[in-house]
Target: Aminopeptidase N
Amino acid sequence: MGGDIVPGTDPYVPGHGDAAYGVDHYDLALTYRPSSNQLRGEARLAVTTRRETDRLRVDLHHLAVRGVTVEGAALARDAHKGGHLSVVLRERVPAGTVLTVTVRYAGTPRTIRARHLGDAGWEELEDGVIVASQPHGAPSWFPCNDRVDDKATYAVSFTAPAGYVVAFSGETRCAKRRGASVTWQFDQTHPMAPYLATIQLGRYVETRLATGAAGTTPITVLHPAGLDRDAFAASFGRQPEMMRCFGELFGAYPFDGYRTVVTDDPLEIPLESQSLSTFGRNHCSAEWEEVRLVAHELAHQWFGNAVTVRSWRDIWLHEGFACYAEWLWSEASGLSTADEWAAHHHARLAGLPQDLVLGDPGPELMFDDRVYKRGALTLHALRRTVGDDAFFGVLSSWVREHAGGSVTTADFVGHAERVTGSELAGLLAAWIDAPELPPLP
Model:
């Protein structure tokens, strides 16, 4: 029976995920005590088997399983060891079988460490919580099939002490107080990979930048009181302008709303999640190095969250696109043009080691800055080759045709050729498949 498990299907995140099934919907009911960092939960996973099997492997790290039930098939046994919950059925079921797996669990959540990837997942702040699930941290707080290509919808109930504000990567439906606790209810109706699911908890106030009236996307910021007004206006306050700019270039914003969380603690880098981005107080600044990150995380909603890679080797389809959006925002806001940024970063990359293959950088280099900048340069080379109208037609149709799905580099190359009617495989291969940096067209 051991051959029925297909573990670690993505070599960039070994030991995560099971290709024998897919999750269609997660229903999570969670209760959290910040004073002791104690989490209690019940997760209902609506799954469909993708192949004949008699077992499912679910990812869940550092938390204790209190009980497992299965609807749609008879459960033989379950075992939780080494961050994996093995759910064994009495009989094999065919591909296409619909099951509901319910897991009750509890414990003290913490980050997950992986060689070459560092820490990811649940992290306590001075007075609150952030969850950075990319790329392997989702199992730190809920049982899941932790695959980048396994998208599902979500319903989440999260109970926490009154006085805290809770945010999830989805729409807030209500917050009901009972005694000293508040239960927050959220939905994410757009398909979402586990690594894009997050919970943020803190003592925040809310600033609404756009209400959703007159066809605009609702944009809100949760932040600590006392942020510098001028710095806020110059960074997070410009998100409605960024939204309009990117909407014109990439197509309509792909989700129901957008929320930014600004923690009172400083963060080294912002955190990406679907329809929500998380920053530290240190990112509230008029300096370009901080403003560009605000644009970068917003751009991920199109490239990375709506359109998501099928495997992590193609991460440039997320990071290169979001980096290029920084240059586009710079140009739109009257700063350096995309041409100027491209020339600057091309010269810088030319002086660095030529040992990175953009289309398969390896887990050690998947977050290397060269992936971001060379990915952006690849897009600029494409833009210079086909012209602005064709280039932005490629980007907007890419999102329109693939939103909610999973893609590969080959998909993008084929899409660009089809939309432009041009032979582009050779041009793009030089940027994506070879380590040497090509000249800009």
The domain at 309-432 is CATH 1.10.390.10 (Neutral Protease; domain 2). The radius of gyration is 22 Å.
